[in-house]
Each structure stands twice: as structure tokens, then as C-alpha cells.
Amino acid sequence: MQASVVSAKDLCLTYQTNDGPVHALSDVNLDVRKGDFVSFIGPSGCGKTTFLRVIADLEKKTSGEITVNGLTPDDARKARAYGYVFQAPALYPWRTIEKNIALPLEIMRYAAADQKKRIAEALDLVNLSGFEKKFPWQLSGGMQQRASIARALAFDADLLLMDEPFGALDEIVRDHLNEELLKLWARTNKTICFVTHSIPEAVYLSTKIVVMSPRPGRVTDVIDSTLPAERPLGIRETPEFLKIAHRVREGLRAGHSYEE
């Protein structure tokens, strides 16, 4: 069995507000293994992004346990254990693409020669070689998001946290980037935690799909994919794909409260 990269046990997070406590996560138990591609799916406000932010030490748990590579999230952050890709590319418009990708390397004080090598490798991984001197505003939305992924890959962390990175893109571009992301995952053997609202995207990309309920966010189902590693887009029309998608949809329906 592969080593555990992310391990959560009875994880809870409650926000204290003027209107009273808001229970964002409740008793989350989950193991993400090395090399997994895990998608988190659920309705808005169910804690998908919150869970990613707890992994990244951007939010603090209220109770329970969570480790990243056996470390606390705080220690894992200091050890540069992960790269984070946000919903929007979050590229600085006054920096070229290569300078945007260089930003974490500059902060981590990599030598100039090492920076140059890592930037070139990251650009190649996301098929943006030749665009290093362009500015973000000169690229399409899909290319900007690929540059954001390159920035997260530049310092070669084993864990990639992706918070709905393709949600704002049109379906054709999204399909293409889904294909590219699977190729990237196969080439790098990263462990990926991926937040999405799309059932087809979750099923197409993942080795494991985590279905979450509305607030307080709970894990209602964990589905191990039976799809082969090689996944052309046409696989989405197959009975096996549709069977998994049906289970995800039923899990979402069963966990949803319509009383609010």
C-alpha cells in the first residue's frame, strides 16, 4: 500500500461569527495515498475548499487530526510540501509568464541558474514553452491557468492542491485541460487533490472521488474509480463511466438537505 500523503481523522472546523458558530467541516475521516488523484465534489458551501485550505495551513482546524506527509500542516507548509492552484490564475499582470512562475522560487531563494532550469521544465510540462516572455493579458484564460499550474509545479512539491481551477472556462477548453492534466499527472506522479462542481470532470480525472454533504461538510461517500489509467475523452460515453457518475449523483442527492 502506498504511503499516506494526507490523513484526516475526526477533523472539524467551526467558524465563530457574530451570528453564532458556523460548522464548516464535521468529523472528516480521509486518507489520500501517494500518487492518488482525488476529486472533492459537493454543493457550494460544503467545505471542499475549506478542507484544501486546512491541508495548506490557510485555515486552522478546530478539533481532530490532520497530517501532510506525516507533518502538521504548519510544518508541511514550511517544508514546501505542496503547490496550490487557485480558482483564478492570480498572475501578476506586470510580470511576464516566466517571472510569475519564478515568484515562489525567488521567495525560496533558489539560485538564478536553478530558477531558469525549473521555469523551463515547468513551462514544458504545461505546454507553454515559447510563451515565457508574454504577459498574462496576452494569453487566453486557459493558458493563464496553465501558467498558474506551472508556478505550482516549479519547486517540484509532491502534492498539488487544485481549487476548481477550470470552473470559469468554457467546456471545450475545460475538456482540453482535463486531458492535459491527466498527462501531466502521469508524467510527474504527483498526488493531486482537486475541487470541482462537475460530476463528469470528477469521474474523468480521478482515482478516487470524495462526495461531501452541505454544511456541516461531511464525507458521505468515497468512490474508488474502476476506469483504466488511459482515458480518452470518449470514455465518458461508456457504461462504466456512467455507472460511476450515477453513484456520484446519487451520493450528492442523498447527502443534500432541501430544508434550508
TrEMBL record:
Could you list this entry's UniProt keywords, alphabetically sorted.
ATP-binding, Nucleotide-binding, Transport
Molecular-function GO terms, alphabetical: ATP binding; ATP hydrolysis activity
Among the Pfam families in the record, one is ABC_tran
**Xref: SUPFAM superfamilies:** P-loop containing nucleoside triphosphate hydrolases
Q: Which PROSITE patterns match?
A: ABC_TRANSPORTER_1, ABC_TRANSPORTER_2
Q: Which InterPro entries match?
A: AAA+_ATPase (IPR003593), ABC_transporter-like_ATP-bd (IPR003439), ABC_transporter-like_CS (IPR017871), ABC_transporter_ATP-bind (IPR050166), P-loop_NTPase (IPR027417)
Domain ABC transporter, first and last residues per copy: 6-239
* Taxonomy, superkingdom: Bacteria
* Recorded family membership: Belongs to the ABC transporter superfamily.
What's the protein here called?
NitT/TauT family transport system ATP-binding protein
Question: Which organism is the protein's source?
Answer: Rhizobium mongolense subsp. loessense
